[in-house]
Specification:
Elements: H1 3-18, E1 30-40, E2 46-48, E3 53-57, E4 60-72, E5 75-82, E6 85-91, E7 95-103, E8 106-112, E9 119-137, E10 146-148, E11 151-163, E12 168-177, E13 180-185, E14 188-194, E15 198-207
Amino acid sequence: MNKRTYGGALAALALACLSQPVLAQSAGTWSVGVGAHQVKPTSDNGSVLDGDFDLDISENAQPTVTFEYFIRNDLGIEVLASIPFEHDIDIVDVGRVATTKQLPPTVTLQYHFNSRGMVSPFVGAGINYTLFFSEKTSGALEGTTIKLKDSWGPAAHAGVDFMIGESGAIRVDVRWMDIDTDVEVNGVKIGTAQIDPLAYGVAYVYRF
């Protein structure tokens, strides 16, 4: 065997190894992901007091976990859970007036492309429920009681799994959630906060 033939054989062998199938996402299988997400609210966070004052809501990062069950080959239902996210609420040109915590459990139906390959992108759509709690006032609203109402809305999800073995993967993803919440001060609605965040994340995902 000459060097050219030998080199070609090695290249073919390397390609064959790279293309070896990994654990496919077949009906009845699961995946669990552990990672973190940065929740970044949209640049326009709504207004209060008949639109006279604009809101600015801060971003926050927290650990997250996902569970996905495959109802058909490559088609799964995923649930997202997390440690509570914390946000500062500012009124533009006034300053910080409150803080809040929120939990955004989200359920999505998502399809995985090339699930037997080393690189597997996916897309999904679903619904988000956001629970707000532990609101505290400060600054111009010090001494009042603020409440953010819970929110329901659509959600979207897209990402890529990079396999690191037969069952493990590093996932990079982005989520969008429609989160609009009524803002009440001392029981009176004063406006609506439009958070509508993008959540950027990375996680280790295990398939079984």
